Amino acid sequence: MNKHITLIIFIHILFFSIACSNKDKNKTNNSSSNKTSVKKDAKKSASAAQLNKAAQLIAGVSATDIAAVNAAAVFKKNCASCHGLKGDMALSGAKKLTESTASLVEKVAQIYHGKGLMIPYKNVLKDAEIIAVAKYVEQLR
């Protein structure tokens, strides 16, 4: 069991190191301020689209379907390896969920689309599971 956990931690650290080195390369490759501002604008519009999709998701899933999800179990299986069981671990660049001030829509968008090293869960979890986990995370504060 301990070897398994050590391996998971090693893999997360490796991916985090690779991602950080790629960020540095991207910074040096984008010397033109015009290119940088275009990228920032693209990120803002993508965020708006992601938030819009998240709001549609929340509106489209019934409260009964969300309540039927064992959010703690889904969180433990998919999120705890980086965020910790209590949301207070910040492994591989993950945020401490105990300190999160993100709204429900923002949380759903991050889980659905991913962010940074976090993979998108839109093809891993059902919509009701994504929303249930986002609501569960609010309880960790």
Q: Could you give the topology of this structure?
A:
Elements: H1 2-29, H2 33-60, H3 63-67, H4 71-78, H5 80-83, H6 104-113, H7 127-139
Q: What do these coordinates show?
A:
- There is one protein chain.
- The protein has 141 residues and is mainly alpha-helical.
- The chain has a domain at 47-141: Orthogonal Bundle (Cytochrome Bc1 Complex, Chain D, domain 2), CATH 1.10.760.10.
- The protein has seven helices and no strands.
- It is globular, with a radius of gyration of 17 Å.
- 20% of the residues are buried.
- Residues 22-45 have low confidence and may be disordered.
The fourth-level CATH homologous superfamily of the domain at 47-141 is Cytochrome c-like domain
**Coarse shape:** globular
Mean pLDDT: 79
**What portion of residues belong to β-strands?**
under 5%
Number of strands: 0
Termini separation: 29 Å
CATH C-level category of the domain at 47-141:
Mainly Alpha
Please compute the radius of gyration using only Cα atoms.
Answer: 17 Å
Please tell me the CATH architecture of the domain at 47-141 by its name. Orthogonal Bundle
Please name the CATH topology of the domain at 47-141: Cytochrome Bc1 Complex, Chain D, domain 2
Succession of helices and strands: HHHHHHH
Instruction: Report the major sheet.
Output: none
Q: What is the structural class?
A: mainly alpha
Number of helices: 7
List the uncertain runs: 22-45
State the helicity in percent bands.
55-70%
